[in-house]
Amino acid sequence: MLKTKITLVIPAWNEEKYIRPTLESVNIAKSLYEKIIKERVEIIVVDNDSTDNTAKIAIDYGCRVVKFEKHNLAAVRNAGARYALGEYIAFVDGDSSIIPRDAFIQIHRNLERKNIFGGGSRMRPDRINSFFGFGGFGLIDFLLYLIKVDLSGYGLILIYLRRSDFEKMNGFDEKFWALEDIDFARRMKKMAKKKNQKLKHLNKRVIVCTRKNKLIPLSKMIPTYFKIIKKDGVKKKENVYDLMYDVNKLR
User: Fold this and answer.
1) Which of 15, 51, 106, 119 lies 20 to 30 angstroms, CA to CA, from 203?
2) How many domains does the chain have?
3) Quick count: other Cβ atoms within 10 Å of Cβ 148?
């Protein structure tokens, strides 16, 4: 029986329309890893109190399903991590996030190197638009630039690191209702520097879903983002609910 080496945590709240492409790409990468590396990848889908077939779909794809009720992305990710069996842990969103077929092999080989703390991957939007722009640069990048949030060097999609380091970092900060991945990546970078290690990102981008751009008009999205990016704006649920948590609107 293969030893569990990597755990991938996928948060999911009513994602029956979007989660299949994610799980298909994950299973392709998982099969390749287990064939070549001869160790096991565990897939945990955190069913965030879904009322649709999200959990059933995840089970059909061979995932381990963990139930968690509180609708806070940082808390959902942490809930999945608590059940992780792998020495290495990674996180990716459930809504049509298409990962590279060699993603787990890269994660394994990177973390087998003592000078690597962890890393992530950059994104490629599933369609080009004014919000995400070409190659991932668009309005969101401009808004972050205005408030001097420099994301150069950060890989915010498919974040990965050793589980022991994740626990030392106390996981994702549950005071954040959005941008918890940016906060976590910043803390990863600080801890890596403290340990005289570095971050190394995957050499291919993860394709991400741009449904928010399709379903929420820019006239509403822009003011919401300005609420989020001001000081402590991400720590107020009411600032981010429409953009991050309004399930009926975003499904």
Assistant:
1) 15
2) 1
3) 6
The two beta strands, 116-121 and 88-91, are unpaired
Using DSSP bridges, classify how beta strands 198-199 and 123-125 pair: parallel, antiparallel or unpaired: unpaired
For the whole prediction, is pTM greater than 0.70? Answer: yes
* Coil, helix or strand at residue 123: strand
Residue 209: alpha-carbon gap to chain centroid: 12
In this structure, is residue 222 part of a structural domain? no
Q: What is the DSSP letter of 47?
A: E
Residue 46 has φ and ψ, to the nearest 5°, of -90, 105
Identify the residue whose tokens are 């106390």. Answer: 170
The verdict on residue 136 lying in a domain is yes
Cβ atoms of 195 and 162 closer than 8 Å: no
Give the CATH number, domain containing residue 98.
3.90.550.10
- In single-letter form, the type of residue at position 143 comes to L
Q: Is 103 a domain residue?
A: yes
In whole angstroms, give the CA distance from residue 239 to residue 215. 18
Per-residue pLDDT of the chain (251 residues; tens, 9 = 90+): 789 999 999 999 999 999 999 999 999 999 999 999 999 999 999 999 999 999 999 999 999 999 999 999 999 999 999 999 999 999 999 988 899 999 999 999 999 999 999 999 987 777 665 455 444 445 555 555 444 444 455 667 899 999 999 999 999 999 999 889 989 998 999 999 999 999 999 998 888 877 766 666 666 666 666 666 666 777 888 777 776 777 667 66
